[in-house]
Amino acid sequence: MGSASKQAAATRRARIEQLRQEEKRRERRNKIIAFTVSVLVLAGMVGGGFWIVSDANSKDDAKKAVAAASASAKAQAAKVEISGVKTWKDLTFNHVQGKVDYPMTPPVGGDHNAAWLDCDGKVYDKQVPNENAVHSLEHGAVWVTYNDKASQSDITTLSEKVAKTPYSLMSPYPSEKGTITLSAWGTQLVVDSATDPRVNQFFLKYVQGPQTREPGASCSDVGVMP
Prior knowledge:
alpha/beta, Glutaredoxin, 6-stranded mixed sheet, rod-shaped, transmembrane helix
């Protein structure tokens, strides 16, 4: 009887020890799995972070490259003489109230209203006040005007160009002599068609170009409603 009892106790101890060893092995296995998962997650986060940073850097580099190319193109355009361009110098630039009698049509500079027109790629379907438009020119905008001799195709083409060009605006100007007139501060070009290559040359040279009296000044809407 005593011998059988000792044997049973020994068997239980052996079984308990076996269970303990199995538990230890499970714990080690779980730790290894948890560690491996952690490493993979961390690697994914690091890799993902690297990709995000790399992608952000690539986009930033691309923007810098575009900006540099644009600046270079404008610098080259500033040196090009555009045939047919007229210029005026020594223009006054006082802020005044009421109407101003300008010596050229449309005006390209002179005294003007203290409020400028929205010239952030704005296309107006009605004639706008000279005095506000001239203030926009002072900020470096190009003002496109046209009379009833302009074709609908020309109007559409110019409208699309202006709409995607910050620091430009467009409006009808029935009393102008030329079919289409491009104006910047102290500068003007008359063309017969929107397809005239000088249109693109004028935009490239004079949108925020060397004639700008107040570089970087806002061209957004300041509440002027023509």
